[in-house]
Amino acid sequence: MKRKMLLIILDGVPWRNFRRLFGNLEGWVQSGDAQMWKHRAVLPSISASCYASIHTGVSPQEHGCTGNGNVFRLKQDDVFSQVRKAGGKTGAVAHSFWSEFFNRSPFDFVRDVEYDEPDSATITHGRFHSMTGYGHDNQMTPSDVDLFASLTNLCQRFDLDYGMLHTCTLDSMGHRFFHESAEMDRACFIMDEMLAPFIPRWRSMGYEVIVTADHGQDERGHHGGRGPLQQETALYYFGDAQGPAAEDVIDQLQLAPTILDRLGAPIAPTMKALPFLR
Questions:
Q1: DSSP 8-state assignment for residue 253
Q2: What is the pairing mode between strands 114-116 and 125-129?
Q3: Which regions in the chain score pLDDT beneath 50?
Q4: Contact 178, 220 (CB under 8 A)
Q5: In whole angstroms, how large is the CA radius of gyration of the chain?
Q6: How crowded is residue 220: how many other Cβ atoms within 10 Å of its Cβ?
Q7: Fewer CB atoms inside 10 A, N or C side of the chain?
């Protein structure tokens, strides 16, 4: 493969909270070590639909996942499968929906919580959590530093060509406290602080890194619709490529072909959007 890439998805962070509360990420933009753009989610701007679109490069109207209650093994080619076709190794540390979309469905709590399958056509090394029991008073999300460490462990042990990490912490906190609250200010600060030491470590291991969210959240902690707070988030890129003008908006369907283009893996014919990094 030409390069190595990690995609870090912090679930449910609106544009304005990335820009005002993530001091480490913004500091790297200010110093010139990262580039940043606005990133607009597909519709519906609901988690599972966005997960599916980020990796297939097609809209929910095409892949068919209309929300969190409609999760199944997707039929379209995706980033994991295209990297595997190019001979690369893939890994994911994420919510169980990702395993169901890109490996096998339904999710088996014992079989699929952790697997290393070198012959898999999609995800070769998976570490998944289900958040079973999640609700307003019971967040059920792993510590994010543990998730970042798990991805780093997979990179060190298996020399991943493409790795993806997804955490629901801020989405869960946003649904509980809404994004304009002292609790969310603190949660975003902690996430930024936990993530920060890993980015230079991943870069030193030879990875380009993208940090973004699947969607935002509005004043009532809602997402799924068209409102800017629900659809718009930020995207930070650490690497040597040049992106578009700072005022341009990245369409979510551009993520899959961009990642594959940077890795040197074939872009699936179904991925019609243009890469945004050159």
A1: G
A2: antiparallel
A3: none
A4: yes
A5: 17
A6: 12
A7: C
